[in-house]
Task: structure prediction
Amino acid sequence: MTTSTRGADKVPAVLVLEDGRIFRGRAYGAVGETFGEAVFSTGMTGYQETLTDPSYHRQVVVMTAPHVGNTGVNDEDAESRRIWVSGYVVRDPARVPSNWRSRRTLDEELAAQGVVGICGVDTRALTRHLRERGAMRVGIFSGNALPDEGTMLAEVRQAPEMQGADLSAEVATKEAYVVPAQGEKKFTVAAVDLGIKGMTPYRMAERGIEVHVLPAASTVDDVYAVNPDGVFFSNGPGDPATADHAVSVMRGVLERGTPLFGICFGNQILGRALGFGTYKLKYGHRGINQPVQDRTTGKVEVTAHNHGFAVDAPLDKVSDTPFGRAEVSHVCLNDNVVEGLQLLDKPAFSVQYHPEAAAGPHDAAYLFDRFVKLMEGQRA
Result:
């Protein structure tokens, strides 16, 4: 990715999809070129949390909300240390942010972090195209000396695909760190960072949990070196079919019977650990308005999602696994995609979405309480 930032709002830009569809607009953020997987997010708000979610590593995010940037950028809402999206696509960027916490414009933040974007694009047409054709590779090119269309398309088709990509180690912490419990400490949790969002350990800390966030390369011995009451596997980017190390560590946790909770990528890791396969969705689930049913209670939740892969597990029966019986606990009501798993003979469960939902609905916050109850039951 090559970038510059000077006078970007007047610079022409072109978005090129790998199937040859082209959209023209203006540069937004940094000027240059970038490549990734084109995906769309249906959130009406929370763009700062989306941009800084490590699960979006190597993806070009198309915002379906037409007006983006109206609350600017602050110093409190980032979910990680940097912006992770490889490119950003909006229709109508806000000219002036209006929020008492705003410190700078979204355009300025994108430019400062070298994120190439494009605005003035018909994002409705682009989203419909991706829904029909599926997520695909894309390039954004901006500058006064753009390559010809054939050259741009050739470069897009040479970019790496998301299927087969092993990315979690690229976004995870390199050194372990601790998020202390708020108030009285009740439990210790080892959280394997595969691309964790900052709000996740915070939600656990609110419940009296001391969270030890560990690098993606951590071993089973590393996990148990912190003497955990529970183990957590986070969200993260890439293809779960490549995550053999994480699957091996999770199997070690399951063998010991320690309470286990996984979200998003962690759900896919649990699926693989139990012997299920995973597959790539046509265009994925992204945004903060996805309806999911908790099949254990019948409750329907509006939830925050960001996943392009899913677990291939039967919806209509209890499955026998190397770790006992397992069932699908949550399902997406839009398309019947598996959104959660639970073991019936061991204290382990996972969901495919984001119960911390810093920028979205809080319907699923009870899942952290469910994790606490598992640890309470194990201690008793």
